[in-house]
Amino acid sequence: MRIAIIEDNENLAKGIKNSLEDQGLGVNWIANGIDGAAFLRQENPDVAIIDVNLPGQDGLSIVREIRQRGDTIPVLILTAMGKTSERVMGLEAGADDYLVKPFEMAELIARVRALARRRPILQSPTTEIGALRYHSQSRTLQGPAGDLELPRRELALFECLLDNRGRIISRDRISDTLYGTGAEIDSNAIELLVSRLRRKLDGSGVLIRTARGLGYMLDEEKP
Q1: Taking the model in full, what pTM does it have?
Q2: pLDDT tens across 164-198, in order?
Q3: Which residue of 6, 22, 104, 117 is 20 to 30 Å from 98, comparing CA positions?
Q4: How far, in Å, are 117, 210, 219 from residue 163 at the CA level?
């Protein structure tokens, strides 16, 4: 899952970024409204966290722009303004949720995950593929022998492949989802991560297929 943070407070933005990355999420941080709006026009993150008072372009106008072009990306508004009228203004602009500063990081993470679950593929709290059962709310994966204990990056990779099951997803797309757009990672990092996850899915009736030069696809093993 990939999160966009549009926030000009560097310390706060880095704190949010580090906390989300600790959860195995890919994060892009943009520090001003103009660049943030441009990023959202060009990219397709799973959730956008947008501050209201931004240099260049304010957060509410970014949200309005998103909705006017028909983009359904879930948006969480961050602001120091907590009056009811101000909350209503943010929601009417098109935001899905509203969090007033200061806030607990655990609450922000929970709200981000709740927003991400609104995507069509995750409407059901439980997804079954082969002999696997994935529970999106608890982020747990069960196999034929019980729970599969996956490190956060492997779990994030599985979620990324599950969201696109039956479709080939490129290494670049996986990298963007897990680490954020433009992240500098070792060229073999994705391949090694896929290899480790593939071994742990052995015997589950689920395969990670490799399309050489194109990417990877999660698929059920044929009888």
Answers
A1: 0.65
A2: 888 888 888 888 888 776 667 776 889 999 999 99
A3: 22
A4: 11, 17, 12
Name the one residue in this structure whose structure tokens are 């009228």: 85
Q: Domains in the chain, ordered, with CATH?
A: 2-116 (3.40.50.2300), 123-220 (1.10.10.10)
Burial class (CB in 10 A: 0-12, 13-18, 19+), 184: exposed
Distances (CA, A) of 47 to 128, 129, 204: 24, 25, 30
The answer to whether the beta carbons of residues 76 and 115 sit under 8 Å apart is: yes
Q: How far is CA 70 from the centre of its chain?
A: 20
